[in-house]
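The following record pairs a protein chain with its ligand, iron/sulfur cluster.
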Amino acid sequence: MIKGLYIHIPFCDQICTYCDFVKMVASDELKVDYVRALIKELEYFSDLVEHTKTIYIGGGTPSSLDIDLLEAFLSELSVTVNLKEIEEFTIEANPCDVSDELLKLFKKFHVSRISMGVQSTDDGLLKFLGRNHTLESVIKAVELIKKYNFNLNLDFLYAVPGQTEEMIRKDLDFIKLCDPQHVSYYSLIVEDRTIINHLINTHKVADFPDDLARDFADIIDQHLADLGYDKYEVSNYCKPGFESKHNLIYWNVEEYLGIGLNASSQYNYIRMKNPKSIKEYIAGTKKNALNMHQLEEYNPKLELLLLGLRKTKGVSLEYYKSRIKKDVFEVYPVLSKHLENKLLELKDGYLKFTKNGMYLANQVYIDII
Ligand code: SF4
């Protein structure tokens, strides 16, 4: 049964220097055509998503859609899914787009959670990252979101070239002040086809040192724990009871449907992906049979272990056995070696990384992949 519905809006008002997601700056006409295609795809899968428990609209930047277009899409969505019954409905928003009008629209369609990419509170670093917001716009957006009582996730980045410990501490002070229910703190991964990668390769900026990244990770972990956040996944922290229900569906390898450009779906023991080209995607939704998906490899034995280990609690041995019909140590005998060398441990029926194992996780992953 489909538990989560993901909807991809690939449009952005600017292209960030570190981003390798599927996104684009687009004309108003293309946005309208795309939303029409999304609605077609949604209608096609309406029986499948009728009882979804979570919805996540991500991107790109969903809030970069014109408000009337967003409303038209949300109206169609409310015909397919009873939004009042959704346990968690998240939309990603750019701080510059947050307004009374937008938040009233979200309330009207029972959005419960807003995820906002802050990345840093340092305006110079934001400029380097290619973001179009400033600390001031973030402060205004957070005040408004709190006024309307949404659950709030704030995304931050660390290990950004040029970032100092002082900047990280300023970010953490800001989190303390805003007191969001959820924080995602990602280490910047320099992907090949990004501007930052080009700047590093041409020696215009220096790559971020690994040992300093590890120090920053420790500062972040400690500080967020002191503020009452539970680290429940490698990059995710929440106040008790505010885990992202939608992301847990991915990490628990449960069934979900993704609609939109390049979106993945997983159900009935298959995984499939939509086209990456917007032209191909829009054309694909015009065909009645809707056979534009590419099948992808689906390996629940491995994924339950890999994604389970991302969670701080680890992999439930009982859950693994109930899904795979075999004990995880029977499927991966090499795990015993890492229990002995103390990179992994067993606690309360879960297999998890030790603190040292978190830093040396690759040694475990190499053995099991
Ligand atoms: S706003 Fe998000 S999706 Fe768009 S370019 Fe920046 S990081 Fe990428």
